[in-house]
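EI: anyone free to look at a 167-residue chain?
SC: sure, send it
EI:
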Amino acid sequence: MLVFLDTEYTGYDRSDVKLISIALVAEDGHREFYAELSDGWREEDCSAFVRREVLPLLDAANVLSSTQLKADLHQWFCAGPRSIRVATDSVIDFQILTNLLTGEWPGNLVIDRYDLRAMIDTGAFHRAVQRYFGPGRHEHHALHDARALRAGWLAYMDARKSCGRGI
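SC: here you go
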């Protein structure tokens, strides 16, 4: 099963990327994980873009310490199906997840990622992602972005089943 991953972090222009929030959405849409990190980053660590576009969207829905986040992530993966592969459009997102799970890698989690970058510029993927965002569903919120990636992937796969029309 694919699990769509998105993270929000302090910014590209920083040499030391620090995680702010993380989300995972299962391919079937039945399982989700979302958490905001309570430690390991400060507002001063964030780029201007992150302060303007990401921080206002944090909702304190599930705020965890780094230690608790690692344990909860491991447990979430272990409670999943026999084989899970992370799908993401970002190498950085996958590196952040890998760092979080170092030493506690779940046995059902495939080591490499499913790279969504090749799909991003296709019409079906792009249109589905854009349709996902709307009132109450903001880009640059990790959970909304992960759900949008799933929507884009589903649309892309549907278009492929239609003999390539609409890709």
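EI: The first helix runs from residue 48 to 53.
SC: 👍
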